[in-house]
Amino acid sequence: MSSLLEVRSVHKSFVRGGGAFANEGKAERFVAVEGVSFEVARGETFAVVGESGCGKTTLARMVLRLIEPDHGAILFEGRDLLQLSDGALRAQRREMQMIFQDPFASLNPRMRVGEIVAEPLAIHEPQRSSGERLGRAGEMLRRVGLDQSALQRYPHEFSGGQRQRIGIARALILRPKLIVADEPVSALDVSVGAQVLLLLQELQKEFALTYLFISHSLPVVAQLASQIAVMRAGKLVECGPADRILHHPGSGYARELLAAVPEIPRPGQV
Amino acid sequence: MTALLEIRSLTVELPTAAGWVKPVNDLSLQIAAGQTLGLVGESGSGKTMLALALMGLLPPGARVHGETRLVTKEGTAKSLTTLDEEGWRKVRGQQIAMIFQEPMTSLNPVMRIGAQIEEAILAHQPNLERGAVQLRLRTAMKHASMPEPETRARQFPHQLSGGLRQRAMIAMALAPSPELLIADEPTTALDVTVQKQILDLLDRLRRELDLALLFITHDLGVVAKVADRVAVMYAGRIVEEGPVQKVLLSPQHPYTQGLLAASPTLERRVLTPIPGTVPQLKQLPPGCAFAPRCSFRRAECDQAVPAFRQVEPDHGARCVLP
Q1: How far apart are CA B218 and CA A69, in angstroms?
Q2: Cα distance from B322 to chain A (closest Cα, Å)?
Q3: Domain range spanning residue A133?
Q4: What chain B residue is nearest to A161 in terms of C-alpha separation?
Q5: Torsion on CA atoms A265, B1, B6, B9, rounded to nearest 10
Q6: What is the per-residue pLDDT across B81-95, written as a single tens digit (0 to 9) for each?
Q7: pTM of the model
Q8: Which domains does chain B have, with CATH numbers?
Q9: CA distance A92 to chain B (A)
Q10: How many CB atoms within 10 Å of residue A79?
């Protein structure tokens, strides 16, 4: 089994306490991600869990090279993304797309949904006619459960769950291999969140997708992860098959996180 | 058991361009002192509007029908539905206090934490001496279990973590010794380990101060942990109410069943989402508001809003199904 993505001891620190009003030299460096390594196999769902500030979003953005790591390597199908030229990186990015947490902030309010979903095509396949692009956008919208009429409407006309579907359609329109999903359901209501999780599972099978799934919620991760990495203060505390992490965690921190989850009583449980 | 708060057929109407809507519709609830009532519902169910009605903070133009009574420990009853602004000022903060989801937006960013808590104390007892205010401040911070209270009192909100900010909010809310605390998604923005600490704190305060707690959340796991009783709200109405174990283990209303089937847990299982979406308040069906999404729908569901039926003396649902 070849890995689609391999992250090798990536490291990222930010300057903190500086800013326009700070004295020279007062700024200190804050280490967001420290020596993180893992491999993601094709077709699996690799979840990174951790509390706020643990560095999971920085890690996700580095995988897409939206944030430049200080050092380390990020191999996508064996090619180090950090060594790629701008042009080569742009071509590579069509293979890897992102789904964001906030469906209200991640869609341009002044663009029609058809343009939003077709925009990646306009960038990566400019030779296609706009009619062809809109046709593809319409197909993808239908696949994620939205009506054709959505093409002509604006994001504010849709509910949170529908907007998240629009974001998913935009991420899938280039038929990427890897989807980085950063808290895709945490802004949604329970019943809507379940709809989106199920959709993500169906789409994974249909389009042979690999997910890098970032979340603070262990119950959400438990539904679809095959591998789980637990992150704390920039480092991977524990990493392994989902069943082992959820039922036989090796680290005290993973046990602490699991114990803090308020569980719903179920019939048959005592 | 006598209720501290008794809500009878409360309806809140708001004017919109499309006519009057009822975010709270013929709602009845009771909370006793020392008891936690969990109020569960998704966005738009009306749970926050109910909280605002209980605080006398409804938007201008709102119409209120029905009856809400607050019975103090001394046994005097006060009707909240007939209060004027002067009357509300004596209730709000003093008898009923509220904490919110995002403490940062409720705290003043340019005022020290201690001064903000003192302000909450002085708002209700303006003639209190300096020493007595300091004493009340220390008690409030101790109640909220704020570590290093002297240091924290001198800090500004941005210097505090999310959990400590929520503790500061709790200290402010409890400083005037209210009898009812409304907590509107107080832990939704917090990490699980911090959430656990805040839930434990609220539970301890409820017991120690004999506080009635109305805990609003969308998370059934949180409800299971904090609440004695739970009320499930949908489109402005209570659709099910009962002891938390009974409601979660043998839910009677299809909406409660749907929420449980859609909630992720640490055990992997097939999640079953509720089909469709929450109805718009201005386009509610004539019968049961949940009927269009319900898999047990019958003809009678569309004719009239089902009555609230008791399945057991302490557990009931607004559904025609047996």
Answers
A1: 38
A2: 20
A3: 105-175
A4: B277
A5: 70
A6: 989 999 998 899 899
A7: 0.90
A8: 3-95+178-317 (3.40.50.300), 110-177 (no CATH)
A9: 34
A10: 12
